[in-house]
Design goal:
Elements: H1 15-23, E1 47-52, E2 55-60, H2 65-71, E3 97-98, E4 117-119, H3 123-137, H4 154-161, E5 188-190, H5 200-209, E6 214-217, E7 224-227, H6 243-247, E8 253-255, H7 256-261, E9 266-271, E10 280-286, E11 289-295, H8 308-312, E12 327-328, E13 337-338, H9 341-359, E14 364-368, H10 374-388, E15 393-395, H11 402-411, E16 429-433, H12 437-440, H13 442-453, E17 457-461, E18 470-471, E19 474-475, E20 478-480, H14 487-500, H15 506-512, H16 515-525, H17 532-539, H18 543-555, E21 559-563, H19 565-568, H20 573-587, E22 597-599, H21 606-611, E23 618-619, E24 623-624, H22 628-638, H23 650-659, E25 664-668, H24 672-675, H25 679-688, E26 691-696, E27 708-711, E28 720-723, E29 728-732, H26 744-754, H27 764-774, H28 783-789, E30 792-793, E31 837-841, E32 867-870, H29 872-877, E33 885-889, E34 894-901, E35 909-912, H30 921-924, E36 941-947, H31 951-958
Parallel strand pairs: 1-4, 14-15, 14-25, 16-17, 16-21, 17-20, 21-22, 25-26, 26-27, 31-35, 32-34
Antiparallel strand pairs: 1-2, 3-4, 5-8, 6-7, 9-10, 10-11, 12-13, 12-27, 18-19, 23-24, 28-29, 29-30, 31-36, 32-35, 33-34, 33-36
Length: 959
Amino acid sequence: MLTDKRNDLGTPASSAERNWYRNGKNNGRAQVEHSRVDFSSNVKSKTVTLTIDGNEVTVPEGTSLLRAAALNGIMIPKLCATDSLEPFGSCRLCLVEIEGKRGYPASCTTLAEQGMKVKTYSQRLAKLRRNVMELYISDHPLDCLMCPVDGDCELQDMAGAVGLRDVRYGFSGKNHLKSEKDKTNPYFTFDPAKCIVCFRCVRACDEIQGTLALTARHRGFDSIITPGPTHEFLSSECVSCGACVMACPTAALIENKVIEKGLPLKTTITTCAYCGVGCSFEVQTQGHEIIRLVPNKNGHANHGHSCVKGRFAWTYALSPERATKPLMRKSIEEPWKEVSWEEAIAYVASEFKRIAEKYGRNSIGAVSSSRCTNEEDFLVQKLVRAVFRNNNIDTCARVCHSPTGYGLKAAFGTSAGTNPFDSIRFADVIFIIGANPTDGHPVFGSHMKRRLREGARLIIADPRKIDLVKTPHIKADYHLQLKPGTNVALLNALAYTILEEGLENRAFIEQKCDKISFGKWMEFIRREENSPERAQEITGVDAGLIRAAARLYATGGNAAIYYGLGVTEHSQGTTAVLAIANLAMLTGNVGKEGAGVNPLRGQNNVQGSCDMGSFPHEFSGYRHVSDYQTRALFEEAWNVPLDPEPGFRITNMLTEAVYGNFKAIYVHGEDLTQSDPDSNHVIEALKSMELVVLHDIFLNEMSKYCHVFLPGCSFLEKDGTFTNAERRIQRVRQVLPPACGKQEWEVIQEIAQAMGYPMHYNHPSEIMDEIARLTPTFRGVSYEKLDKLGSIQWPCNEEAIEGTPVMHREKFFRGLGQFHITGYVPTPEKPTRRFPLILTTGRILHHYNVGTQTRRTENIIWFKEDVLEIHPSDAQDRGIKDGELVEVTSRKGSGFFRCKVTERVQPGTVYATFHFPESRANIVTTEISDWATNCPEYKVTAVQVSAVAKEKAVKEALC
């Protein structure tokens, strides 16, 4: 314990202190961290040899002395340096002596040079370090035993490492010890009294997150870290990603749960269950109580970063609103009745059997979940095919990225993105179309911002001014602010310009693409109807901007396309995906780092649910059910004949239910009434069925129309795998026992068994083993290999033992890349005098999809209701003021939103979020869907917006 006594700090350090420098400590945050410069792609292969403490060492050129020493087991004390931040050199603890050089340079900012002779320890260095540490401690509370991070504090560890035992200066002078805490953020607290102004939090916000929300006010002794411009975390530009909390070496920034409960005792690595980035997390616990989730620095998708949802909004899993007992009722007019698992499973099985016998086997089906594991999704489609004896299986990818699967398979041969997220580091040009990475995929959005600050060029095609159009230190070279529904016309015009100006990559096309399809497509694309001038009339984007963007994409170096639901959720969603593939092949931007066609998948396992055979026409691995050899493989494994005819899609199931032909459905982890279009139609279909079974963790909007509710497990209660948007398969590891008493895969197999089919597994690893046996792209995947490698990107088989980060390097999966004619066909949904505005929809950072999870967390503090953005001119025409409640009406129905008047949207277009059921967003959207996949056209709905006269009455009616 430090004492406030004067003492001579020039005495020699003990042998124990010397050993720390040489061997390091192996506990908590005191583990060695190195300058991030050594991990960048700029480190050269050339090496240098130097001497450190008498030992000759050889390291890559560009390595810092701090890193060079650590690589050779010599630990130098430090506070401002970490392995995730650029070297800064402010703390003055990592000083070293270099023969022939004056002074004591910081080892984190000094690069190793050939022939250097370095000392990391001497009595003079020891004295300097103790003096520096004494100054830190003189303005720091000495309440270590009561501090929530006692035992996991770098300041505490460094004080011990340098041998500081006393502080000479006393605490009667000017200090920060009574500074007021900032408790405005619901997830963490900032205590300036414990802040040492090392700038790690500021640098983390800058370098890792890219928000630049933190700064230092004043200078010298008066310096204080503060979020700007409001000087409090909640109302500032802070996005609550937690990077600052993770970077803090003291308890100045600390999670509230750690303050309340103390430090965790155990760590389990798992995968986030929010968006398609697939961040890896350390779940830190005390017994069965979760203390915090910390982003895993070895996570291959996130590299130690996180967003507010994954880092903090996991508490929905502990919500008292969770249903943990099976519920049943014969009619949706009756109240729910709790029953045992045995009774619920027996009833579900008997009803499915009864209905199939009475109405035929095609009268029943299922919907699998993009939020559940690969293993669970595989069992749901197996339940349908082997037990229900039909192919009436679909997944919520139907309403988001089904055009991606169709389009990329047709063009390239695989239904997935081509490149890993890390490929962004090599991109010279980034083309974002119909996506908002900083809100929808924030961790990858941060990686993207970092690359843009390094000099990559940016093209954005979006009806709305997303944050990346202009943020601190980032400005898009071209914002193609097109009208909703005109993506195909824009993409064709880009291709037209590239061909017209001779900017295509002929060598790539000749070598890797089908010449016949290219010839037909080239003849089509050169038509005047695809010119930028014609596109200007359709899209509203200036022809000159289109031509300039095309030139940049074609000639700017490695060019990567990233797209989202703003591409797929259209009547021409599949056509747009094909047009994107055409553009990438035309310029040779496939099969290499820094390029590719990269869908930003919305949910944590939307890629995996598709991989597992959750579509009605495909087995796992995207093989058609009509293929005899594939079907024979599954028939032999499952010991049952399988239907060669594709089954019903979700839309077919619902329509057939209204017609009286489809009678029973098992819905796994999905809310059809809130996530599917034309909610009134969905409700009518559900009411028409004799058995609706919902398997989920909360009673949601759909549960109002269900007969059986089976309680499910959160991701923290599961074992299995998720597959993210870059085809990365990662382990999900159980942290808590299932609140409902059963794993979801166990429930699925028990339903199968109750229906007479012998489905049995002892552990999800056995399900993955079956997936690997039956799926060529997963043949080399196993839990053992995942535990060894951390993650695997499929294809993983004999040809790619450890997976395939970049696809189509040598050739396309289908052999030769296929060009497709992509004629622009206007959507049938058009503005009229009655409905003069076009509504498009999207997400917001703090909420996720239909909000079932995030609405049950503290994220509700930031946004308590859905928002409609409207241009000032449109608002003025309607007498609407900012912040008012407005009614949005289409030919299908009405919804209610809080209005935000902003120039982020253009005149004639309004933008709405859809996270709250009260807004009734999907009652407004239409029945129009993609021509190939039936993906709904959420992004184009003709509407009228009007002010609500009596807001209180509306709210009461909605409740």
